[in-house]
Every structure is written in structure tokens, then in C-alpha cells.
Amino acid sequence: MRAIPRILIAGTGSGCGKTTVTCALLQALVNRNLRVRACKCGPDYIDPMFHRHIVGRSSSNLDLFLLGPDTVRRLLAKAGAGCDITVIEGVMGYYDGLALDNSAASSWQVARVTHTPAVLVVDARAAALSVLATVEGFLNFQPHSQIAGVILNGCSAGVYEGLAKAIRERFGSRVQPLGFLPRMEDCRLESRHLGLVTADEVEGLDRKLEVLARQAAQSLDLEGLLALARSAPPLSFRPLPLPRFGETVRIALARDKAFCFYYADSLDLLARLGAELVPFSPLEDKELPPDIQGLYLGGGYPELYADRLSANRSMRRSIRQAVESGIPTVAECGGFMYLTQTIAGRPMAGALPGDCFDAGRLTRFGYLTLTAQSDSLLCAKGQKLPAHEFHHWDCTQLGGDWLAQKPSGRSWTSGLAGPTLYAGYPHLHFCAAPGAAVRFYTACIKEKHRHESDHPTR
Predict the structure, then answer these.
(1) How far is 89 from 23, CA to CA, in rounded Å?
(2) Which residues belong to the active site?
(3) Which tens digit of pLDDT belongs to each residue from 167-203?
(4) How remote is the C-alpha of 168 from its chain's centroid?
(5) Which pairing describes strands 6-11 and 118-123: parallel, antiparallel, or unpaired?
(6) Is the pTM of this model over 0.85?
(7) Rounded distance, CA 446 to CA 458, Å?
């Protein structure tokens, strides 16, 4: 059991302002010199980048489809250890889950399994008494909603004062109004085809965050939010036993503007096994780091940087040689695209067959389960990995080494796998399948020993 003060910032739906509210709250709390951590419901990579920019530490994804209840509680406890408050940002609408007819893997389920009080962000623009109808609907939709507070977004101080009074009169102690944010058009966070623009790309982000934080200090009930967080009960969870290998391996980690989608807890798990993660840039560096025994190419936006990636011929050659020589390689989504022959006609690493093209829409979007069709780097034949896909680009050669199946039952074959390779569009989370991380690490140790035997000390 561990005491972790925490709240979950939920939304009535996408676009209601929960990310803006979350960022404003985080920055306001940091400005008070509090020890603050952040988490994100669901598989999203971009919102955690904003969290990290504000609080200075990695944000954990709490995804019930990928991870399951006990792992979610464990990661939440790890994230919030020793902190004054952990703020969890929800995903989509509060009750939105795997399908139209159920709330599986929703923000509400995260609040339920972690016993976290939720604060509902309601878009109050062009609305008055209807705000109360919205709040009542969310409170009563499930018998245990976990909703304990409301923040109104996009309204004036005068409107908030009247609505807050009405909320108190109608709902009493069931839910408390915890402040508002007015319309702040100058602080909007830009979007593109995979969601928000990443934190490093937002012009004037620090200025926007300070403006939001000053407003939050004035119009959000920070003391009420802190008190609500402290009311959360202790978390219970089982520890994760990991093997002790007793030797370190070096895994090259692609990390720049083109390759930036990684789960912090996945990388932490590899580090706990003993990996030294060596960052490099396929955009800027000329070749892979020296003396590596593994390669990890995460997702991102290689399509936006295709010209620069293609122009870096020495790096393309270095990576192709590494993959073809058998260095254990994990390549997800954008990393997979980079290993193919071309992206939009621009030559890439060429270690894998296929050409990548803009499909013009989200393709095979959402959660899925991968079943290994043969023994390979991450799994034995028949083993399963939870995963998700989120991309507009596709490839002429998807591979067929995994059976991918959505919760709806739809299935297809996809991905490339071998003794030293995982490559495909599905994103993975190693905390969902620690055994896959162990197999990857073990393969890296074998590569280290193979290299040592090829070059014995004289």
C-alpha cells in the first residue's frame, strides 16, 4: 500500500479543453514549488511530452488495454512516489472506451481501478443551465462515477459565479465546483494529423504556459484540488519481479524530431534489466553509436522529415548494415517506415521491403492483439502482445508474421519478425509484456557475446 495524492482530469469529450486545463494546473502547481508528477490515460505519446516539459520528469501512460489494472496501479504508484500531487490527464470523453457500447479502457475505468477522484472539465462556451444537465448526466451515468469536482472551461468569471452557486445548490456534497478558465485564444495548442504538435515544436510554449498558470492561480481552486488529491486512498499493487542478468548491453535509441514516440516506462524497464540506452539522431548523426548490441527505432513523424532522413546516406547505410548483420532490432510504426525502401518516394534505410505512402486517413486505427505466428525476437509462437496503431501512412509490404486482431474481431496479418527483428506499425509497451523485453535483452546479450567471440582479446 502506498499513499499517492492524485486526481484525474476528465473531459466530456475530445476538444473540451482538458489538455489546456491539465497544463495550466500542472504549471501553476510547479510554480508553487510543489513536487508534481503527471500521467496520461490511454496510449497517447504527445500529451506526456507536454507533461514532461512542465514538471521536468517523464509522464507515465496508464492504459488498461495495454497494461491491465495491477500494472496501471504499480506505474501510478511509481510515478507519484514522494510527490505532493500526481495529475492524471484523461483521454477522449470520460466514459469513452473500446467500443460505442462499453467503457472498457476508458478514463472512468482508470479512475475506478486506481480509486482516483475525478474532476470533470465541461466546455461552458455558449451554455448556461445546460452545464448542470451535462454534470448531472455524467454523475448519474454510472453508479460509482468517481467524479468529485467540476472545472468550467471557456466561461467568464461572472458566468462561473452563477453556475458554481447552481452546482452547489443542485448537487450538494456530491460534486464541488473547482474553478474555471476563460477563453484564452493566444494559449491554444496547435494540432495536426496525429493530434497536438509536440511540445518541442510549439513556438512560445513557455510563455503560453506561464499565461495559463497565472490564470489558473487566479481562477482555479488550487487548494480545493490539492485537498481532493489528498483524499485519495492508498494504492495497492504487486511488485514486478525481473531477472538479474549481471551484465550490461548498449541499445541505440533513435531520438529526435522524427523519432520521439516512446513510453517512458518501457525504456525504464529495459534500463532495470541492465540496458544502457544510447540516444542518437537519424536526422543529425552520421552513423550509429559505436559498440551497440541492440537497436530501438520508435514511432514519430518520419514522413515530415523524409527529405532530411533520405539525405543522410551514411546513417541510412549504417542502420541497414546493423539490421542485416543481425543486431536485435525493434522498429515500431515510424521506425518501421524508416527501415523500408522509401517514404513518399524518398529512399530510406532499405533494410526491409516495401514503400510507404500517405493513405489519406487513419489506417487500422486503435487497439489490437498480436499473436506470434512463429518463434521470434519478442515472442514464442502462439504468444500474444497487446498493441495499438495510430497512423495515416501505410506500406505496400506490411509483412505477415503476426496475426493482428481488433477487439471487434476483425483480423489481418501484419508485421515482420525473426530471431533478431520486430518491425511493424503496431506500437508496443514492454510493461504490458515484460517477457518480450527479457527476450529482447537476452538477444542483445547474445549479440554482445557473438561480437566478443568475433574479436577476441589478444
Answers:
(1) 9
(2) 333
(3) 999 999 999 999 999 988 777 766 544 455 777 777 7
(4) 36
(5) parallel
(6) yes
(7) 21
